[in-house]
Amino acid sequence: MYTTIVDPKTLHDHLGDPNWIVIDCRHNLLDYGEGRRLYDEGHIPGAQFVYVETDLSAEKTGTNGRHPLPHRETFVEFLRSLGVNENTQIVAYDAGVDMFASRLWFMTRWIGHGAIALLDGGYASWVEARYPITTEPSPQHPHGNLQLHAQLDRTFNANDVLAEITNNGNTADGSYPHAVLLDARGAERFAGQNETMDPVAGHIPGAQNRFFKENFDDRGRWKSPEQLRKEFAEYGDPANVVHYCGSGVSSAVNLIGMHIADLTGAALYPGSWSEWCADRSRPMVTP
């Protein structure tokens, strides 16, 4: 069972394996139709396409963030519709050095299915290896028998985060002794500069910043477990780390980075900044 990443050769060796399902998660937050267009232009043979905005998100209310999670039972049924069984190995990919396959990875673990891995380097690494691509529609799998199980990673809601930053007491340097809030957005958005996605610029008080792309090397592959372990060590006990971002998508990249480094126990706040800032009574650090 693969639970973090697989290399292109491993996936190629399993093309056509009935116990493996490949899912294309390519997406663009500024052009919702781009992912499907890219899929139609070429994809890994047998891969099924998912829409981040609908398949991997619930309806937005204006207060629940830009990518709210659906009900867990709803997502289980969606994966069944793709043919996922209890023993299915899922491999997800996006364009590479991106965040959308990690969203599917987190959500699949959230409903208790651990056999989910990302294609290391994404679609770009597959093309680079000169493995086959196709424009043909992928065959539909028989309806799967996946069941709902206990989630494999902890999640925080807004009240959990608020309790951490108001009840634990902050130290002289502005940090908090228990929860370590780790924001996966780029440094400018974390600082409240050039905010283009959300109505309020800034971050949650006490948070630290680790841009999700810091988990990849210069070739667009995931850094080694040893390197990731060294980099995440500055945040202390993994069980105290709470990941968030703009809408609960790129934060999953930091979470999987910790898993690759064998640093388990961290939580993820799915609502993230877009949910947090929707309630102006919540404390915020703004420019």
CATH superfamily of the largest domain: Rhodanese-like domain
Q: Kindly identify the CATH topology of the largest domain.
A: Oxidized Rhodanese, domain 1
**What is the radius of gyration?**
19 Å
The CATH C-level name of the largest domain is: Alpha Beta
Q: Indicate the low-confidence ranges by residue numbers.
A: 169-176
Summary, kept brief:
This protein is 28% helix and 11% strand. It is α/β, with parallel strands linked by helices and 287 residues long. Helix 4 crosses helix 9 (251-260).
Topology diagram in text:
Blueprint: E1 5-6, H1 8-13, E2 20-24, H2 34-41, E3 48-49, H3 72-81, E4 89-93, H4 100-110, E5 116-119, H5 122-128, E6 154-155, H6 158-167, E7 180-183, H7 187-190, E8 208-209, H8 225-232, E9 241-244, H9 251-260, E10 267-268, H10 272-276
Helix pairs in contact: 4-9
Describe the protein in words.
The protein is 28% helix and 11% strand. It has 287 residues and is α/β, with parallel strands linked by helices. It folds into 2 domains: 5-128, Rhodanese-like domain (Oxidized Rhodanese, domain 1); 154-276, Oxidized Rhodanese, domain 1 (3-Layer(aba) Sandwich), CATH 3.40.250.10. The strands form 2 sheets. Strands 1-5-4-2-3 form a 5-stranded parallel beta sheet. Strands 6-10-9-7-8 form a 5-stranded parallel beta sheet, covered by helices on one side. Strand 9 (241-244), helix 9 (251-260) and strand 10 (267-268) form a beta-alpha-beta unit.
